Amino acid sequence: MKITAVIMAGGRGERFWPKSRNSCPKQFLSLTSDGETMIRKTVNRLRPMVEAEDIFIVTNAAYKDLVKDQLPEVPEENILAEPCARNTAPCIAFAAAVIGRKYDDAIMLVLPSDHLIGYEDIYISTLKKAVAVAEEGKNLVTIGITPTYPETGYGYINFGKEAGSAYEVERFVEKPDLATAKKYLASGKYLWNSGMFVWKISSIMTDLKEFMPDIYEGALRIGESFGTDKFTETLVKEFTAFTSESIDFGIMEKASNIFTIPGSFGWDDVGSWLAVERINETDDDKNYVDGDVITVDSQRTTICGGKRLVAAIGTRDIIIVDTDDVLLVCSKNNTQDVKKVIAQLKERGRNELV
Amino acid sequence: MKITAVIMAGGRGERFWPKSRNSCPKQFLSLTSDGETMIRKTVNRLRPMVEAEDIFIVTNAAYKDLVKDQLPEVPEENILAEPCARNTAPCIAFAAAVIGRKYDDAIMLVLPSDHLIGYEDIYISTLKKAVAVAEEGKNLVTIGITPTYPETGYGYINFGKEAGSAYEVERFVEKPDLATAKKYLASGKYLWNSGMFVWKISSIMTDLKEFMPDIYEGALRIGESFGTDKFTETLVKEFTAFTSESIDFGIMEKASNIFTIPGSFGWDDVGSWLAVERINETDDDKNYVDGDVITVDSQRTTICGGKRLVAAIGTRDIIIVDTDDVLLVCSKNNTQDVKKVIAQLKERGRNELV
Fold it and tell me: pTM of the prediction?
C-alpha cells in the first residue's frame, strides 16, 4: 500500500526563545552544528520509505513560505496551511481528508517536525513494522519510546498483550508525578508517548467518524474542495469551526484496535535549551560552543553565539543565547522559565521580541 | 598658597572590558547609574577647593579629545598629553615642571581619575588637612585609606608617630598575602595606599632632583619649552627617554619627610566589575540592572545592558555586560580573568575588540 507521511509543523516552540520566534519557530531552526533545520532532518530521515511527493506538511499559514524554502522538493500543494491552531486532531483529519482525495487508501505516518532521531536505520525499520501492523484491519499504531529514566514531562502508553511485533495498548496516561513515573518504569509496561502514529487513511477516518463526527464531516468537506477554487474559503470556514482537541484524547484514548511498537532509536524531543548539549558534541569541560566564543575556566556551559564575540569566564551550568535583538542568560535549572519572559514581553506589548 | 590638582588619566582600565577599550578606558566611562563618567566625577568633587584653570589632566595623547569633550571647563593647555606610558613618576614630574612654569610655587594635589568617593565633604576636609601639612617645610603627604578588611590587592602604608593631623610614614609595603594583610589590620598601624598625594611643587622637585635626577632634568626641559613651538618636539624626546617608574618606588619609599593623613571618605577604587553592585543601588535580590533587562528568579546578578533586551533567568553571582560587538558573561569569582580574554584577543590579532 502507498505510504504517505504527514509532518506536523504548526508549533510555536517557545522553549527555544529567543532563537525561536513566532515568526520562525523551532522546527525551522537548526539546533545542531551541521546547520540543518529540524524539519529538514525530519524529511531527510523519512526518504528511505516515503517519496517526496507523498510527504505532506501541515503547518500554520504563516509558515508556508518557510516550508517552501526549507523543503523545496515537497510539492507546494502538499503544504497544508491551517488558518488557525486547533491541536492535533483537526490537523490530522485535514491531512487524512486531503490524502484520501489523492489516493484511494494509503498508509499515513504522522510525525512531529521538531524531534531528533539518533539511529535512523532502526527508526525506519520500526516504522516499517508499524506499517505492517497498520495494514491489518483497522489498527491504529503508535510508536512508543522505551523510557530511559522517569521523565515527568511526557505522557505514557500502558501496553498489554504482545501481538506480533506490536503490543496491544491498555490505556494512555497523562504526565505523571515522579513517584508514579518511577512505578511506570519499574512495571516494564509503560512507554513514552512520542506523538508518532501509523494507520491507514480508511482506519483513522472510520474512527474520526465515530468519535469526532463534526471534525470528520468538516474534514471531508475540506477534502472535497481541495484543488478547486472553493478550497481556501471552505478550509477557513470549516477549520476555524473545529474544536481544539488532541488526537490522543479525541481518538487514541477511546478507540479499540490500538497497538504500540516500542522504539529504541535515540529519540530526543529537543524539549528545551538543555537538549543542545545532549544533541551536540561538547568539549572536555562539557561546554557546547557555537559561534565566535572565548571561554576561560567555564564548565557545562552552552553558548549559542550570534554576530558578536561572546566571552564566558568561570561560568557553570548556564545557557547563553545571543541573537541580534535579544540576549538570554539562563541557568540550566530554569529552562522552563523562558516562557515567563515571553509572557512578560507579551504583557508589555513587545511582540516584536516574541 | 595656590592649590592646583593633577589628575592622572592615562590608564587602560582593562578590568572593565568589554565596556572599557583601549580607545575609551575606564576613567572616561560611567559605571554609575547617574551617567557621569569617572573623570567627570573626579573633577566635580575637587571644585570646592580648586579652580578649573588650576586643574591639570595628564593623559595619553590618544585620550586628549576625550578629556576635552568630557571636561570642557579645563583649559586645553592644561591637558598634558604623554607621548607614551612611563608610570607615575615621569607623569608627576612632567606636571610639576609645567605647573612650576605657571606659578612660582603651588600646592599640587595628585589624584587618580578613576576612583569613587562616597563622602565628598570629608574628602575635601581631608585634602585640606593634607595641604596644611604639605605647606610646612618640604613635606610629602600621602592620603592613606583606613582599611575595612584585609585586602591583598593594594599596597599598604605603615605609619608611626602622630604629627599634628598627620602621621609620619615608616615605610610603604607592596601587596601582602592574606595572613600578612590580617596582621597589618590587627596592628592598627597600616593604611591602604590610595595613590593620592599632596605636596608643594618645590618639595617634589627637590626630591626628584635628589632621587631621580634624569627625570628631574628632562622634566625641567619640558617645562621650559611649555608654551613655545619647541614643546612637542621636546616632550617627545625627553618623555620617551624617561625610565618607567612609579612615584611610590622612585620617591616615596626613599625620601624623608613623608607623612600620611588617614582618610575615611568612602573611597572605592572601582577595581573590577564586582564594584558595580557596590557603588550602585541593587534590588531586593541584590541584582544590579542597567538597560533593557528582564530578570526571572535571578539573584546577585550584575547586568550592564546594551542596545538589546537582556533576559536573565535563574542566574546567581554572575556579571553580564552587553556591548555592540562583545558580550561578557563572567562569574563573580573570575573578574580578574577578563585580562586573560584580552590577552587571547591580542594573540589572535583581534585588536579591534581590545
Answer: 0.91
